[in-house]
């Protein structure tokens, strides 16, 4: 799992810091952004992120709007949506917009890592040249 670059966009600093520490101990390089706009700026400066872990409910630019911008500008970056309040319509909408999957907060660390690994595997498949 070493070498995975993850961008975590979430307005809950405490949750993000705790999760970041736990993921870093597992060899994942975590960068944190507190707003959708900050996250988009980081992606424009460094497009080598494998996965974005994106909170849905944030003030200002929410996760759904942020997801739309990410998928337009960085279509091969996989996005896992996070929500504290599972709303079927919002979840289905985000999946329809290209999100890889979603997790409900608080998720177990093993579940988060499994989703990240699966998302990275899909990204690698999408980056491979087609075989003839």
Class derived from helix and strand content? alpha/beta
What gap, in angstroms, lies between the N and C termini?
29 Å
User: How many domains would you count in the coordinates?
Assistant: 1
Oligomer type: single chain
The largest sheet, given as strand count, sense and whether it forms a barrel, is: 5 strands, parallel
Please trace the helix and strand order, writing H or E for each element: EHEHEHEHEH
Low-confidence stretches: none
- What's the CATH first level? Alpha Beta
Radius of gyration: 14 Å
**Order of strands in the sheet with most strands:** 2-1-3-4-5
**CATH-wise, what's the superfamily?**
Response regulator
CATH architecture: 3-Layer(aba) Sandwich
Strand segment count: 5
CATH topology: Rossmann fold
Using the alpha-carbon principal axes, give the shape.
Answer: globular
Number of helices: 5
> In which range does the helix fraction lie?
40-55%
Mean pLDDT: 90
Portion in strands: 15-25%
Task: Please explain how this structure is put together.
The protein is built from 5 helices and 5 strands. The chain has helices at 13-25, 36-45, 63-73, 88-96, 109-127; strands at 5-9, 29-33, 51-55, 78-83, 101-104. It has one domain (5-127): Response regulator (Rossmann fold). Helix 2 packs parallel to helix 3 (63-73). A 5-stranded parallel beta sheet has the order 2-1-3-4-5, sandwiched between helices. By secondary structure, it is of the alpha/beta class. Helices cover 47% and strands 19% of the residues. Strand 3, helix 3 (63-73) and strand 4 form a beta-alpha-beta unit. The radius of gyration is 14 Å and the shape is globular.
């Amino acid at each position: 799992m070493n070498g995975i670059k993850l961008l975590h966009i979430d307005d809950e600093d405490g949750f993000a810091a705790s999760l970041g520490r736990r993921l870093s101990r597992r060899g994942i390089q975590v960068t944190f952004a507190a707003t959708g706009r900050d996250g988009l700026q980081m992606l424009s400066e460094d497009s080598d992120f494998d996965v974005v872990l994106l909170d849905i409910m944030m003030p200002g630019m929410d996760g759904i709007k942020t997801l739309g911008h990410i998928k337009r500008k960085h279509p091969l970056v996989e996005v896992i949506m996070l929500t504290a309040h599972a709303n079927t319509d919002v979840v289905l909408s985000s999946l329809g917009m290209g999100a890889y999957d979603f997790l409900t907060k608080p998720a177990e660390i093993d579940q988060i890592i499994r989703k990240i690994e699966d998302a990275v595997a899909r990204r690698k498949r999408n980056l491979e040249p087609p075989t003839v």
